[in-house]
Please model this.
Amino acid sequence: MRIAVANDHAAVELKSKIASYLKELGHEVVNYGTDETKSCDYPVYGEKVGRAVAAGEVDCGVLICGTGVGISIAANKVRGVRAAVCSDTATARLVKQHNNANIIAFGARIVGEELAKDIVKAYLDAEFMGDRHSKRVDMIHEIEMRRQ
Ligand code: RB5
Model:
């Protein structure tokens, strides 16, 4: 798969480790930054990956900030994005199976490297289950389309 990764200053090191891990798994990684530890604004990076995912330039995205929350909120403002913050592998699997999340996010100040890798792997290995879940994901999209 072609996977976008991005982060703020809180997650430069973890993003680099996750990017290497994704490559080890055989994926193509598109890095949207930042690669500097100087303080920066996470919405910039959430939006970049959100737009890449929504445009179909990549298959999915991985976003990391201090908590995973700010950067995922920013990405979720892009129409078509379903970014989910996960701090455990069960949630990572379920956000794909039930919510068809197209971006997974987590916090570099919350999860360690090994758990972060397991979260990414659980997400990538899972498949959207469709059926009743499709209707609910469609309903989320309808809310987006009604948004002013
Ligand atoms: C940066 O200090 C921090 O606020 C950011 O990484 C993130 O945790 C926001 O949600």
Remarks:
- The longest helix spans residues 132-146.
- The longest strand covers residues 2-7.
- Residues 8, 10, 42, 65-67, 69-70 surround D-ribose (CB under 6 Å).
